[in-house]
Each structure stands twice: as C-alpha cells, then as structure tokens.
Design a protein that fits this description.
It comes from Sphaeramia orbicularis (orbiculate cardinalfish). This is Transmembrane protein 42-like. Keywords: Membrane, Transmembrane, Transmembrane helix. The chain is an all-alpha fold and 162 residues long. It has one domain. Helices cover 72% and strands 0% of the residues. The longest helix has 34 residues.
Amino acid sequence: MKRVSASAGMISGSFYALLAGFMGATASLCAKLSLGADYLKEICESGLKNGDDWRETGGGKSTCDWLHLPLRLLCGALLFACNAVMWTFFSKALRHCSSSARATVTTTASNFISSAVFGRLMFGELHAALWWVGISLTLCGLLLLHGSTPQTQPLEGDKKDN
C-alpha cells in the first residue's frame, strides 16, 4: 500500500475543505433561488428580453410565468444535492486534515468568500466595510492555522517503561 506524506494529506484536506465551503455556498444560493422572491422569474425575463417572438404564450402569459416553477423545483433538488456533496467533502477534509479546527476554519472561510462572490454576481449585493474586516481577520487566522506545524503526541506503545 502506498503511503502519503503528511504535507500531501494536509493539502488534500485543505482542498476538500475549500470544496466543502464552495458547495455550502452553492446550496445556499439554490435555497435563495428556490424559496426567495421571484429571482428566477426576473432572471428568466431578463434572459428573454431579446427573444420577444416566443415570450408570449396563450392567454397573455409570458413563458417566464410558468417556467420559473420548474426552475424553483430544480433549485430545490440542487439544494439537497449540494448539501450532500458538501458534507461528503467536509468529512473527507476532517479525515485528511491534521486537525478538525483547520478543516472547519478553511470550510468557513471558503463559504464566506463564495457567498460574497455569488451574492455580488447573482443579486448585486454589496458588503459593508465591517464585513470585509471580519472576513480579513478570518483569513489571517486561517493563514496562521495553516502556517503552524502540527505537534504529534507519542503513542502509548512508544513510551519506555522505567
């Protein structure tokens, strides 16, 4: 059986933690799209602005009046799928990281940053300066945590009896 070095295990653990945070933010995005206001209907209408020839269906209703309902159901299903994938990646991160704190902080930082990017791209959200100070402190703590070397405790079998 091939043995993986400790640094390679920490890199893969950190990678899994980053993916877990991203998938958590994606799940939150899907929840907001499926349960929130008429975001999907607005996105549909803005996407169909140039396609006026098939925008109207019978009875004066637009395509987006009925299309946003299946899209909401799809986003609801994606919410559960993204959560399942997020927990899978997080459990792999816990297994491969040297400490659970490293996996948790990395996942949290990844989730915050991904949520900020999704909020800006999808909804035009802006964050206050205090939010950026908080995320900066979180990232500094993350860098300190990743920069420290893990201390190993001797195993019971390694101790010599006097």
